[in-house]
Amino acid sequence: MVMGHEPSGIIKEVGKNVKNLKPGDRVVIEPGISCLQCENCKEGSYNMCPEMAFCATPPVNGSLCRYYAHKASFCHKIPDNVSLEEAALTEPLAVAVHACTRGGVSIGKTVLITGAGPIGLVNLLTAKAMGAAKVCIVDIVASRLEFAKSLGADYAVLADEKVPEVMAQKIVQTTGHKFDIAIECSGVESSAQLSLLATKSRGMVVLVGLSKNVYSSLPVSDIISREVDVRGVFRYVNCHPIALQLLASGKVNVKSMITHRFKLEDSLKAFEVAHSGSGGAIKVLIDCAKR
Q: What HEC string does 126-142 produce?
């Protein structure tokens, strides 16, 4: 199967019925094509479409190739002042826009983010852009936390306690408070537990990270007794245009997240670097253009 679901590129050809795009236009591809006919699609929740065809999700091939054909309505023009490299981060940024919107991030809110990988980092940038007063990010890797601070994190806390209750206490002691909103980006069950425990009563927890395991030990009694709202996030819906606007306006700057670049022929090495995190890898780009 061909990998890849975060592409930007330049249009080579368009179909005869395409009116909104032309050869030479720079675009980002929203990698999921929904049916646009089912109840979910008609209600505007096309990310819930049961017939969704999503890049690099079996049996659909991805976009890691020199040429890729995609439905015009899911191609978004890149603003003139945004580079193709920056635009390649539109897809994860759209995830963050959806997560922060679902979580109700707004001016004055305090936000906890668990996981300082690429998704956690773009959530940090987006929360700040949406007006969050204080953002705390938690991770097990100290270098990732240092990078998060360079992006504007108010607090960066090393997750060196295995017991969620103890770790939640450490975060509260460090920051002086619990949080209005927690955004869980690691996909680790203990981090989901931590997010709930470190959120204020009647606060909001947003689960973004996907886990291969079923969450079996979430503190349900705590959710009930403190009326903590828990929301899931699955990809995004109508978020790519907002993500591009954030990039174009300068409210979100992702340039420093791009740490490594590889040619298409070196894709295996690119995946190895992304997986290992060697060389301080954050976001690894693959240039598919033929030079």
A: HHHHCCCCEEEEEECCH
Give residue 207's identity as a one-letter amino acid code: L
Asked if residues 78 and 278 have their Cβ atoms less than 8 Å apart, the reply is no
- Amino acid letter for position 122: V
Task: Determine the 3-state secondary structure of 33 from DSSP.
Answer: strand
Tell me whether strands 26-29 and 8-10 are parallel, antiparallel or unpaired.
antiparallel
Tokens for 60, please give them. 């659909």
In 3D space, the residue among 64, 60, 117, 116 whose CA is nearest the CA of residue 271 turns out to be 64
* CB-facing half-sphere around the CA of 45: CA atoms within 13 A: 8
Compute the distance between CA of residue 207 and CA of residue 38 in angstroms, rounded to an integer: 26
Chain segment 60-70, per-residue pLDDT in tens: 999 999 999 99
Task: Name the E strands within the chain.
Answer: 8-10, 26-29, 32-33, 53-54, 75-77, 110-114, 134-139, 155-158, 179-184, 199-207, 229-232, 258-263, 283-287
Q: How confident is the model at residue 213 (pLDDT cuts 50, 70, 90)?
A: confident
C-alpha of 86 from chain center: 14
Q: Which residues of 69-105 are buried (b: 16+ CB within 10 A; e: fewer)?
A: ebeeebbbbbeeebebebbbbbbbbbbbbbbbbbbeb
pTM above 0.90, yes or no: yes
